[in-house]
């Protein structure tokens, strides 16, 4: 593995052997519904508590990813996962069921790419033959932990986002068929003083811009190298800000398609309740593992950069008036080669 | 493996919060204060009108005085609010109505009911019992403190402590 600046170049080009995406009912009403492996028709995910529901999503996604990778659970050597719950309980409890050596990671909504970057590093360094990366989020667990009870009648501002209900996992290996993981750019924590926990897109946009700038500098690439660059969950407010910031950095994002998973997963005209768009760990995970990888396999996309964005706040930190530190991790996926 | 040789020196990483604020401000979706005020005015007014109707009902059907009808009226409004909360409707109305549904007694009932529902999973004692006043608690605390201060002012001005 080579290191330049903040970027790892995986020389063995780990392959995503299989991936999965399991979502809740609202994501199933969105435009990407056909790409998901399974859609639950109830927000409870057939469980008694929101937390159990989130865990079930992750367990389902893990099973499905192994199935798609055509490997047995005992062949899987490591699971790298995280989520938004305190003490990442969803991932750890799901790992309890899997019985696989487990590394818990936390990068808020950037966990999807953080875990993929770590799992790929394991493969590249020869530390594992098969490793799985995974994450999940549930709308109600997140509302309950970070904001208000789900049924509480408070008016959300138009820039608020809607945490997606869903889980995505991927199995990475040294050989096999599938999209390759070629690079990962590990982000720095950036905090430009946004304090409003509803204004996630604005808080996270600088972190995304910083990581994309670092990625281009470290790899010597320009955005035109990629068919698609997606951010995790900047949504309708954050994405235009990221565009403006990148313009200031002199990164020519107009060379490529620059989109956001939080805007792709819902139809905001029809699903008005999502306000400015989707967010959450599961957002970039299900869009990448469900939608983007499928498009890559169909040959519609060859090179994609996924920049998962995360807001590293806690309910305690914002109640104490702290601003929101944010991070973004970028992973480059390529077909063939 | 070589150690990282350089760190990001992007413009973003050295931007000041004030500088960023001006950029972010441009992209913030507008919120119509006038529209929100009007919605709140009419929905809040409508809830009060319904309350008035319920009070009239108690006064004419059960032959209660205005004062006697007060308590059952509030109870009925609370029940309606709790039912709407349980069916997952209240928060949707509130997203549209804003302060219109938050300020009347129905908003208070919603804040308690939603917290109770949410924390039912943690059991009756640590969940419902301990978390029910999570949102409503501050209303009660500051309501009591405010009443206490007003009471002292009344007493000092010699206008009597009410009643």
Automatic annotation (TrEMBL), chain A:
<dbReference type="InterPro" id="IPR010894">
    <property type="entry name" value="SpoVAD"/>
</dbReference>
<dbReference type="InterPro" id="IPR016039">
    <property type="entry name" value="Thiolase-like"/>
</dbReference>
<dbReference type="Pfam" id="PF07451">
    <property type="entry name" value="SpoVAD"/>
</dbReference>
<dbReference type="InterPro" id="IPR038369">
    <property type="entry name" value="SpoVAD_sf"/>
</dbReference>
<protein>
    <submittedName>
        <fullName>Stage V sporulation protein AD</fullName>
    </submittedName>
</protein>
<dbReference type="GO" id="GO:0016746">
    <property type="term" value="F:acyltransferase activity"/>
</dbReference>
Automatic annotation (TrEMBL), chain B:
<dbReference type="InterPro" id="IPR005562">
    <property type="entry name" value="SpoVA"/>
</dbReference>
<feature type="transmembrane region" description="Helical">
    <location>
        <begin position="70"/>
        <end position="90"/>
    </location>
</feature>
<dbReference type="Pfam" id="PF03862">
    <property type="entry name" value="SpoVAC_SpoVAEB"/>
</dbReference>
<protein>
    <submittedName>
        <fullName>Stage V sporulation protein AC</fullName>
    </submittedName>
</protein>
<keyword id="KW-0812">Transmembrane</keyword>
<feature type="transmembrane region" description="Helical">
    <location>
        <begin position="135"/>
        <end position="157"/>
    </location>
</feature>
<keyword id="KW-0472">Membrane</keyword>
<keyword id="KW-1133">Transmembrane helix</keyword>
<dbReference type="InterPro" id="IPR014203">
    <property type="entry name" value="Spore_V_AC"/>
</dbReference>
<feature type="transmembrane region" description="Helical">
    <location>
        <begin position="40"/>
        <end position="58"/>
    </location>
</feature>
């Amino acid at each position: 593995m080579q290191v330049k600046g903040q970027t790892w170049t995986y020389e063995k080009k780990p392959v995503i052997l299989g991936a999965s995406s399991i979502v809740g009912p609202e994501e199933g009403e969105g435009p990407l519904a056909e790409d998901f492996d399974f859609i639950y028709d109830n927000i409870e995910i057939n469980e008694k508590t929101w937390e159990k529901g989130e865990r079930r999503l992750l367990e389902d996604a893990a099973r499905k990813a192994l199935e798609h990778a055509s490997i047995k659970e005992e062949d899987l050597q490591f699971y790298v996962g995280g989520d938004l719950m305190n003490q990442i309980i969803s991932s750890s409890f799901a790992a309890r069921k899997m019985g696989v050596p487990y590394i818990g990671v936390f990068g808020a909504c950037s966990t999807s790419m953080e875990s993929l970057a770590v799992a790929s590093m394991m493969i590249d360094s020869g530390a594992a033959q098969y490793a799985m990366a995974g994450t999940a989020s549930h709308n109600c667990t997140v509302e309950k932990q970070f904001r208000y009870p789900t049924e509480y009648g408070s008016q959300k501002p138009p820039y608020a986002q809607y945490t997606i209900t869903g889980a995505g996992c991927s199995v990475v290996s040294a050989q096999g068929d599938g999209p390759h993981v070629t690079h990962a750019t590990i982000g720095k924590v950036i905090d430009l003083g946004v304090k409003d926990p509803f204004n996630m897109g604005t808080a996270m946009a600088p972190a995304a811009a910083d990581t994309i700038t670092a990625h281009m500098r470290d790899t010597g690439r320009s955005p035109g190298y990629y068919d698609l660059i997606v951010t995790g969950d900047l949504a309708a407010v954050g994405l235009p800000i990221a565009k403006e910031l990148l313009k200031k950095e002199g990164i020519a994002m107009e060379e490529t398609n620059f989109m956001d998973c939080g805007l792709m997963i819902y139809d905001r005209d029809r699903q008005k309740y999502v306000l400015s768009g989707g967010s959450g760990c599961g957002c970039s995970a299900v869009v990448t593992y469900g939608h983007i990888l499928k498009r890559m396999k169909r040959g519609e996309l060859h090179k994609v950069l996924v920049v998962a964005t995360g807001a590293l706040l806690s309910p305690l930190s914002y109640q104490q008036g702290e601003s929101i530190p944010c991070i973004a991790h970028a992973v480059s996926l390529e077909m063939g080669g | 493996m070589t150690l990282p040789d350089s760190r990001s020196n992007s413009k973003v990483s050295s931007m000041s919060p004030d500088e960023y604020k001006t950029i972010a401000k441009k992209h913030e979706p507008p919120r119509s204060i006038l529209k929100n005020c009007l919605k709140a005015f009419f929905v809040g007014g409508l809830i009060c009108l319904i309350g008035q109707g319920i009070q009239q009902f108690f006064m004419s059907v059960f032959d209660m005085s205005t004062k006697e009808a007060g308590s059952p009226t509030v109870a009925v409004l609370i029940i309606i609010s709790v039912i709407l909360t349980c069916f997952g409707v209240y928060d949707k109305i509130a997203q549209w109505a804003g302060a219109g549904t938050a300020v009347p007694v129905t908003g208070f009932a919603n804040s308690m009911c939603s917290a109770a529902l949410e924390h039912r999973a943690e059991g009756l004692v640590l969940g419902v019992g301990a978390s029910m006043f999570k949102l409503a608690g501050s209303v009660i605390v500051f309501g009591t403190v405010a009443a206490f201060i007003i009471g002292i002012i009344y007493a000092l001005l010699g206008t009597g402590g009410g009643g």
